[in-house]
Structure to design on (464 residues):
């Protein structure tokens, strides 16, 4: 297996050759582009079909999103700045520049060779300009935000032709609990190869930063357990402690049944939390995080569907702070005190719905219309799509991300391993103990299990 920390060597002529010819065909609407790396082909598809980025764009746009950084994120940026300055000392002498970018693709700072920095300014490769894929197409920073591990984008692999003279490598630093990107560290060169050490330099910087984040997450987990223990001694209500993303750190016996997690057992590694798989609870926790960040005395309540229950259960949410920092929430079941968290209040993140799904057959990219997909299944480290063309490996690395993208277009999470197309369900089979299985309308009439925790949502969706 190829070393994950190594980047493939860049072409001496980054703007020409087979990739440039493939890029020209793909921009004109052709889908069959042999000779293009799958990571790049998938990114091009996002740029053309989902983000609609103009390949004739000549410079990155100004970052317009308002900064939304937590104090923990500021610590990450400071640590990465320290690491970036050290990397820049080496790559600057080779004509390279180093950037630190936040999760929106906004460049926060850059260092390196002065002549290259001047050239970078021509295309707005500079602080306060946005290099996410949806803003600037395929590039080392934006594509790193969309994938895991180090990424290199070379010459004509960039979506925008004006950037074909650049060779860039980037790696995203992700939250050790939520796995969401926080920042990107990248190295860029003008019309030259990346330094041999680029991959290892980026990986080492990301690893050292994650070590710092793990220490913080471990400390926060211990503080949440302590707050839970104190609250548990004062109340007999079912109680759980969740982090700011809605993942469970610890729950008592009753709460564990409602949440579908182990009882009274913190994760061995406090950075690995339990995912309850309850969308309403996760949304409420994230909403509470936003409220408490601005109003420390805020206490809320709402109703959520829990496992093994057909009716919603009232919950109370009380933020937990440590040294003035919000670290999570105590969730008590059966409580209804505090400000009501209504669905109308919860801010819905903007989401671009895919017109087609991308799958891979060998090295070929397959574009699927949504009705062609019967269901998606997570198996090991891959997501597989059951389609009218047979089983195909999805380009998406995460079933959670696929579920989020398809939630509003007729797909539903029915099991921790399955997302189904509701329009492709032919029959519903009940087991002896009331468990449900879905018989799909594909050629083999495959059966998809429904977990007990997702059964109420399935019944609501199918009106049964």
């Amino acid at each position: 297996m190829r070393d994950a920390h190594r980047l493939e060597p860049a072409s001496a002529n980054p703007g020409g050759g087979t990739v440039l010819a493939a890029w020209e065909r793909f921009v004109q609407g052709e889908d069959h582009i042999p000779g293009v790396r799958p990571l790049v082909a998938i990114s091009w598809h996002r740029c053309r079909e989902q983000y609609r980025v103009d390949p004739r764009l000549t410079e990155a746009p100004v970052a317009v999103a308002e900064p939304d950084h937590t104090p923990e994120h500021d610590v990450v940026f400071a640590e990465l700045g320290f690491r970036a300055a050290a990397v820049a000392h080496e790559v600057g002498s080779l004509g390279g520049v180093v950037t630190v970018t936040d999760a929106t693709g906004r460049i926060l700072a850059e260092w390196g060779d002065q002549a290259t920095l001047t050239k970078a300014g021509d295309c707005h490769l500079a602080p306060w300009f946005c290099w996410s894929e949806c803003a600037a197409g395929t590039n080392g920073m934006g594509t790193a935000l969309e994938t895991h591990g180090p990424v290199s984008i070379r010459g004509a692999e960039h979506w925008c032709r004006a950037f074909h003279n650049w060779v860039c490598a980037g790696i995203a630093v992700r939250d050790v609990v939520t796995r969401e990107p926080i920042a990107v560290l990248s190295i860029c060169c003008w019309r030259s190869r990346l330094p041999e050490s680029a991959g290892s330099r980026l990986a080492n910087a990301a690893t050292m930063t994650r070590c710092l984040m793990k220490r913080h997450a471990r400390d926060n987990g211990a503080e949440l357990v302590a707050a839970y223990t104190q609250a548990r001694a004062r109340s007999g209500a079912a109680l759980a402690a969740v982090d700011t993303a809605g993942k469970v750190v610890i729950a008592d016996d009753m709460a564990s049944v409602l949440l579908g997690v182990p009882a009274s057992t913190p994760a061995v590694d406090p950075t690995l939390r339990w995912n309850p798989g309850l969308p309403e609870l996760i949304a409420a926790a994230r909403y509470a995080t936003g409220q408490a960040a601005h109003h420390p005395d805020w206490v809320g309540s709402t109703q959520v569907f829990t496992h093994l229950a057909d009716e919603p259960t009232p919950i109370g949410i009380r933020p937990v702070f440590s040294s003035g920092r919000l670290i999570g929430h105590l969730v008590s079941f059966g409580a209804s005190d505090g400000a009501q968290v209504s669905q109308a209040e919860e801010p819905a993140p903007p989401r671009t719905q895919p017109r087609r799904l991308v799958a891979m057959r060998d090295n070929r990219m397959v574009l699927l219309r949504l009705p062609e997909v019967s269901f998606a299944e997570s198996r090991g480290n891959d997501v597989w799509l059951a389609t009218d063309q047979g089983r195909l490996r999805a380009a998406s690395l995460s079933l959670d991300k696929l579920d989020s993208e398809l939630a509003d277009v007729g797909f539903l999470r029915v099991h921790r391993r399955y997302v189904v197309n509701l329009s492709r369900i032919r029959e519903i089979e009940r087991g002896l103990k009331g468990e449900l299985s879905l018989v799909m309308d594909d050629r083999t009439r495959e059966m998809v299990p429904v977990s007990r925790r997702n059964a109420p949502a399935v019944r609501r969706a199918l009106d049964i």
